[in-house]
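Question thread 4412

I'm putting together a teaching handout and wanted feedback from people who do this every day. The idea is simple: show students a protein as raw sequence, then show them the structure tokens that encode its fold, then repeat with a second protein so they can compare. Below is the first pair exactly as I plan to print it.
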Amino acid sequence: MRAWQRMLSGRRLDLLNPTPMDIEIEDIAHGLAFVARWNGQTFGDWPYSVAEHSLLVERIFTRLQPEATATEKLAALLHDAPEYVIGDMISPVKGAIGPAYRDLDARLTTAIHHRFGLPAVLPIALKRRIKQADRISARMEAVQIAGFTEAEATRYFGKPADPAWIDGLGIVLRPPVEPRRDFVLRCRELMA
């Protein structure tokens, strides 16, 4: 059974046995810029992409952890990177699929992390901070573009303990070329 995909960079990524050598940031950015969050069920003329979401999560993470290193910020930016080839599924579907999804995600994450100099498995404290930023972003998205009421969003995603974490931030809907470009640029800045 074929388990590889040809990437636009020319690489052949084996989805079941990925290697760091077959991963390019341009492929990740391109894929994430075309993957819609919320299964595309959002208001607006453009879907809200996983690339855009990832950029927002990294900004929120930096506010939560101002002393974070560039490597930690890179981990936040790449937190959903496997979705460039496996897509974005809402959490209840991921749970229903179970270990098979988690295993595929973990293998891709490990290869991506190795490619960009991150540990295969992030320290628990760092993972928790990234997840906190991810939930804050999800809450913003839920209210601003996915039709949730404030009460629903609070029930499912909680509420930021400090309003400064999201002050001045908002959900931006842009054509895919823009978040793709910004994702690559931010990755390169953090790796420099």
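The second pair follows. I'd like the answer to focus on this one:
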Amino acid sequence: MCPAKTIDGQQRGFVIPIGGAEERVKDPIILQRFVELCGGENAYIVIIPTASQLEETGSNYEDVFHELGVQKAISLPINDREEANSDEYLAELDKATGIFITGGNQLRLSTILGGTPVAQSIRKRNADGVHVAGTSAGAAIMPEHMIAGGRTGALPNEEGVTFAPGMGLINKVIIDQHFSQRNRLGRLLSAISYNPFASGLGICENTAAFIDPTGVLEVVGHGSITVVDPSDLSHSSMADANRGEAITLIGLKLHVLGPGATYCINERIATPAS
């Protein structure tokens, strides 16, 4: 699934996957940057708390955004596919300058939102210039292919990852979150072993990739982003591996990027912070 098409002359909005556990009070650098992009005090933030099964998640984020100076922040409590057809919710998305997808269970996101008018609206609004951020599960669902699960550990293997369709806001990366905190290098490498078309982004907690309309990401926050660049991959044994067998990958590049560093997704060029 490719990102929704932009109208001639329209600049696509930022796509902002967050690795989870973003700071919301003491030094909310990621959320503050998101708010500024969306218009500061004039921002209209729509929150999608579907991934979470906690009733207070949406209202908690409303409070967070109000504390950051946003006058209008509204949560849409979408808990089933019927609610994802709501004309009232679609009208709120039409007014949004920013959309924020919370953490929780990414399979709740894909099974409840997948293919619905709400999901279609999020894609279209991003193509219209609206910025979309997502944390944890909300980050995982952003690409065309979503990591739905997999083993922890540093090494890839044949059973290392499971996929589900994502939202397709971006189609040249695969995203994993809580990356170093949950030891997920192996499952990101397993994901890349299937097809070297996409770069892998392993995003640490309290860290975000601010991906601009040209496909350049900047690392924002207090952790790092591990980039798995498969452009020079010369061999993957995934097609021939037996069940649970270790995978051979030859020619991978790996970058570890701290705050301020950038990575051009289209050209696969990493640059240190200036």
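Top answer:
Good format. For the second protein you could add a caption like this: The first helix runs from residue 29 to 38. The two ends are 34 Å apart (CA to CA).
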